[in-house]
Amino acid sequence: MSSTSMNIRMDSDVKKQAQELFAQFGLDMTTAVNMFLRQSIRQRGIPFVLQLDPFYSDVNQERLLQAAKRLESTGGKVHDMIEVEDDNHKTPTDTTALGS
Question: In this model, does residue 96 exceed pLDDT 70?
């Protein structure tokens, strides 16, 4: 079997996190990428489910905007959301909960 090289661009943080994860399995990046490619070929598709987060759908965004308008029109208060990092995940957080 002959081999070839492949260059790909990715966010440096993604690369670092992936390398750390794969190292826990005793894998390097090359082996992990080869596993992904072989599984894709074997399954004749992406070897995991691709789906959009329904929170960001046009329908839900419109529903949220309407709810915010109703809330404001009845004297309620809409709070700004900020993103905080928690265990390498960004999580929306209500700024009032942080005492802002």
Answer: no
Instruction: Name the band, by pLDDT with cuts 50, 70 and 90, for residue 99.
Output: very low
- Six token digits for residue 65: 């905007």
Separation of alpha carbons 80 and 73, rounded Å: 17
CA triplet 90, 19, 10: central angle to 5 degrees? 65
Tell me how far the alpha carbon of residue 91 is from its chain's centroid. 11
Cβ burial, residue 98 (10 Å; 0-12/13-18/19+): exposed
35's CB contacts (< 8 A; 6+ apart) are 27
∠ CA 37-11-18, nearest 5°, is: 55
